[in-house]
Write a structure and sequence with these properties.
The protein is of the alpha/beta class. The chain has two domains: about 280 residues, FAD/NAD(P)-binding domain (3-Layer(bba) Sandwich); about 160 residues, FAD/NAD(P)-binding domain (3-Layer(bba) Sandwich). Strands 1, 2, 3, 4, 5, 6, 17 and 18 form an eight-stranded mixed β-sheet that branches.
Length: about 475
Amino acid sequence: MTSEHVHIAIVGAGFSGLGAAIRLRQAGIHEFVILERDEEIGGVWRDNLYPGCACDVESPLYSFSFAPNPGWSRMYSPQAEILAYLRRCADEHGVRAHLRLGHAVSEAVWDPDHRRWALETSRGRFTADVLIAGTGGLSEPRVPELRGRERFEGRAFHSARWDAEAPLSGRVAVVGTGASAVQIVPNIVDRVGQLKLFQRTPAWVVPRKDRAFSRLEQRMFALAPFTQRMLRAQLYLRHESFLLGFRNPALMRLVQRRALRYLADQVPDRELRARLRPNFTLGCKRILVSDDYYPALTRDKVEVVSAGVREVVGSGLVDTEGRTHEVDTIIWATGFEVAEPPFARYVRGRSGDSLAQVWRGSPKAYLGTTVAGFPNLFLLTGPNTGLGHSSMLLMIEAQLELILGAVRELGRGAVTIEPDPQVQARFVEEIERGGAGTVWTAGGCSSWYLDGTGRNSTLWPWSTFSYMRRAKFERGDYVIEDA
């Protein structure tokens, strides 16, 4: 079977992949394709169709700096509006011609003889000089491996694979109390006959304070773009100020008093309030933003089950205290495979080992973007580029500038680029030191920020500005092979 050769192959057409495509075109680089497994673009904003799905970062900040949108309807935009924004970006920046939809990548192997990547997709083979992985950390749903899952007689689905035809008028179980559950519960509570929320660990919730943008504001943003840039800058500085608390758990414990007052104001029942009160420092797990989650839990038809799920039976769920809960529908709001992304299992580098084998459950990459032993591979939203305090698009854009620097180096005669193993090792040690004592590692919780070894392999422990300043291509940090 013949292969199509391209200079650059981008895997994924969400914010990361589309952002890479747009910046490549803006830099005058057009020899690339975007391999997308689905038949449409959008990533998580295409896949997550559950009721109430919306961004939990303000829209002016959760958008590309090079593609402002004066037409956002609300401060926190809903899923459909974000997806429409991505589609518009693809159209306006000429990306559609580079898309290869329905091309699920099943294997990516470094070919040392030809010094290129060999890709196997569901619709043919490709070779590429450069491989950019824009698959995202929230692309593969995680459903717990529970005994008896196949025996359940009702409808069961993950929040990211929403079953729009599932009848929700009966008894519904929502398993999980993360960012998806906090949006789903208030938006289905009026439709259900009874709702049971399985809360293994209560989460910290703070007010969302969402509002609509007026037509006057939208016109102002369109006619005087600097006004929206000023709002974006204001939001940016506000979010960066949160980092002081994340890096100082003692200070964060003072801040969490406000969250406790919010809980007390929203939940009059003392017993329910006690069950909803977290026993770890604010910020140790992802902070949830909602104006209607707590009121939904006070409804008579809602029961908060303060126990995990032990097993699934034909009629429902058995919790860890041995109690059986009969339900008609199970919604798994149980998050994603972050520390062990599926993409890592099928990317093989110089040694023939996959990323997953090299990482052994604890991902490591230089600046979260390149990995020693994997030439010309660039990860977007890779290890330690996640954020607990601001918009991921800030990190993605910084990574794109780093990648453009490497691609330009390849254009000047270099054939392969990968980080010096010692430079990468020093960087990982620096991340370890930077994360020590922060609320993410010393806040008294177990979160998806930490991998199976207990390391924080997810979050960047400093300001986004520090990453932007750091994410520059420096030739001396890399092992480079010339033609």
